Amino acid sequence: MNYADAAMKGAKRNALQVGLLVLVAVVLAACTTTTVDEFRQGETGIESHESVVILGRRQGSSYETREEFVDCVGDKVARGARGIRVIPEKEFIDSMFPWFEPRTAPLRTSDLQTLMEEQLVADKIAEYGIRYIIWLDGQTETTNRAGSISCAVGPGGGGCFGFGSWEDDSNFDARVWDVSSFSNVGTISTDATGQSYVPAVVVPIPLIARVEANACNSLASQLQQFVNGD
User: Mapping DSSP to helix (H, G, I), strand (E, B) and coil, where does residue 186 land?
Assistant: First the structure.
């Protein structure tokens, strides 16, 4: 066998390996499921001049609701024909310092009613036109890691071989407070789970389940309908 034949065989083998990896990617990429539950406790609706603020709960010692997730939900809620005006979390917290810092933020609607007795707080809420305060609480956990990948480098080149996987679970709750009545008008929960994979035949190819992105999209869509009173 001459050099050209060997090179052609090598190219075909590499193409087959890449093709198999692409097939695996197509099959595995859909392994994500999302569940959304809604518990309504009161009537809702919002006028064009009113707004909402979406805040992450960060009082817990074991975890904090990620700022990136809060921003994602806020961005999605503000989009579309039924989009709602959303006050950015950081802007709101900075303007309300120190009342909405993690250690001082209201934990119950009764705490919010007491807080609104502060004239500065009441004036700022009115200035923003805030009708609802939405509290997000949750996190993404990674479990069930399995498999391994080994890589080596030799005189003829290097490569990796193996297979790894893990499961991601994004669980978030959104509690909707009506500022006009100091009441909790409902809770929306979302749970997105997915299996991520890293097959490696020469080159590792991560196939990541976008569970947190799915949780964001589902939660934001349901929140938009809930606040609009649909």
Answer: strand
In a domain, 23, yes or no: no
Q: How many folded domains does the chain comprise?
A: 1
Length of the chain: 230
Q: Which two tokens stand for residue 212?
A: 């947190």
E strands present in the chain: 32-40, 51-56, 86-87, 130-154, 157-178, 183-204
Residue range of the domain that includes 39: 31-228
Asked, for residue 68, whether it belongs to a domain, the answer is: yes
Dihedral over Cα of 73, 75, 81, 82: its sign: positive
User: Is the residue at 102 inside a domain?
Assistant: yes
What tokens appear for 36 in the block? 């959304």
Interval 37-93: pLDDT, tens:
999 999 999 999 999 999 999 976 667 899 999 999 999 999 999 999 999 999 999
Question: Could you read off the pLDDT of 184-203 as tens digits, one per residue?
Answer: 999 999 999 998 888 877 77
CB-based contacts of 67: which residues, under 8 Å, 6+ apart?
56, 89, 90
Q: What is this structure's pTM?
A: 0.81
